[in-house]
Amino acid sequence: MIDGDAPALGDSFGRRFPYLRLSLTEACNFSCSYCLPDGYQGEAGPRFLGVAEIQRLVRGFAALGMHKIRLTGGEPSLRKDLEQIIEAVAAVPGIRKVAITTNGTLLPRRLPGWHRAGLTALNVSMDSLQRDRFHALTGHDRQPEILQGLQMAQALGIASVKLNAVLLRGVNDDELPQWMEFLRERPVSVRFIELMRTGDNEAYFLQHHRRADEVITQLLEAGWSERPRYPDAGPAREFGHPGHRGTVGIIAPYARDFCSSCNRLRVTARGDLRLCLFGEFGVPLRPLLQSDDDFDALLARITTQLGLKAAGHGLHQGQTGLIPHLASIGG
Ligand code: SAM
Ligand code: SF4
């Protein structure tokens, strides 16, 4: 905690939640094979939260000690008002980090504007370092733009730049040596994420799920070592190597104790609070985002709901909760 900030929200299991993942849209321009293999099928429903609603929401969470916001989706860069959203969120007292998770296609055109608006951290998804595989996985041959965007991020001096790669058996799980080479001179972190089963991807999951601990073994054998965790760190385990400027993070949702380090809450693009990525229910916050007069009621609803957060997800029992795919909530 920094002097003057509220302590981060906590739950009945002693976990703290300084971190909010806010989805800005369910739409996406990619069709990643494990997420939206048939592309986004524009579901009907209320429109996504607008800038004023988002600012009220973030003010509420910040008053409860939240200090990091990640903007996600779907593909958040498809929002035409993204720059305004970043500016509005960054202006909320108490918010110290504004991050985005994006597929990176619009980075070359839009990153400077996001940076000026107050973006402090960038996560870009890139499941393969090989252009043809990337094309096959996402349905789009746009890796060159992403690599250009990463160079731009470094030139702009964005403090935190990370890459996300989902581990996929038989698809990209032979690329660790290539990644290590990539990280030799680049001061970025790549996070290998274990594929999660969702409502829609069961057959794909059964065919391509690869356990993250197999990658940890390979890293250790190659001389990488695990870095100490800092307080409030999320569930990623970080690895470094003296000969490499970049680092590796491992996100293993099926690992024992994964949920005990949970430090985040989620809000969907239509304003539902989700206590767990794989939870069975959402709590509508949108009715309390229409007027500043509902500020106290908003805080009360969030804190009451946090009392209901479960100790862990039911993924081991095959329970994937409400979500058909992660584009519907933001990963
Ligand atoms: N469209 C943006 C992107 O891809 O970066 C943001 C939203 S996407 C849902 C957020 C992250 O979730 C991405 O890194 C993506 O690879 C990951 N993801 C999506 N489906 C997943 C799954 N079933 N298991 C593990 N990670 C998944
Ligand atoms: Fe779109 Fe991201 Fe899902 Fe890929 S992982 S389909 S980029 S939302």
TrEMBL record:
Single GO molecular function: GTP 3',8'-cyclase activity
InterPro entries: Aldolase_TIM (IPR013785), Elp3/MiaA/NifB-like_rSAM (IPR006638), MoaA (IPR013483), MoaA-like (IPR040064), MoaA_NifB_PqqE_Fe-S-bd_CS (IPR000385), MoaA_twitch (IPR010505), MoCo_biosynth_MoaA/MoaC (IPR050105), rSAM (IPR007197)
Reactions the enzyme catalyzes: GTP + AH2 + S-adenosyl-L-methionine = (8S)-3',8-cyclo-7,8-dihydroguanosine 5'-triphosphate + 5'-deoxyadenosine + L-methionine + A + H(+)
Biological or metabolic pathway of the protein: Cofactor biosynthesis; molybdopterin biosynthesis
Co-factor binding details: Binds 2 [4Fe-4S] clusters. Binds 1 [4Fe-4S] cluster coordinated with 3 cysteines and an exchangeable S-adenosyl-L-methionine and 1 [4Fe-4S] cluster coordinated with 3 cysteines and the GTP-derived substrate.
Entry binding sites for [4Fe-4S] cluster 2: 259, 262, 276
Keywords carried by this UniProt record: 4Fe-4S, GTP-binding, Iron, Iron-sulfur, Lyase, Metal-binding, Molybdenum cofactor biosynthesis, Nucleotide-binding, S-adenosyl-L-methionine
Enzyme Commission number, as recorded: 4.1.99.22
GO biological process, one term: Mo-molybdopterin cofactor biosynthetic process
Domain of life where this protein originates: Bacteria
Binding site for [4Fe-4S] cluster 1: 28, 32, 35
Cofactors: [4Fe-4S] cluster
A Pfam match: Radical_SAM
Amino acids binding S-adenosyl-L-methionine: 34, 74, 125, 196
UniProt binding sites for GTP: 21, 70, 101, 162, 264-266
Described function: Catalyzes the cyclization of GTP to (8S)-3',8-cyclo-7,8-dihydroguanosine 5'-triphosphate.
Family per similarity comment: Belongs to the radical SAM superfamily. MoaA family.
Assembly information from the UniProt record: Monomer and homodimer.
PANTHER family found in the cross-reference section: GTP 3',8-CYCLASE, MOLYBDOPTERIN COFACTOR SYNTHESIS PROTEIN A
Protein name, as recorded: GTP 3',8-cyclase
Organism field: Stenotrophomonas chelatiphaga
Gene: moaA
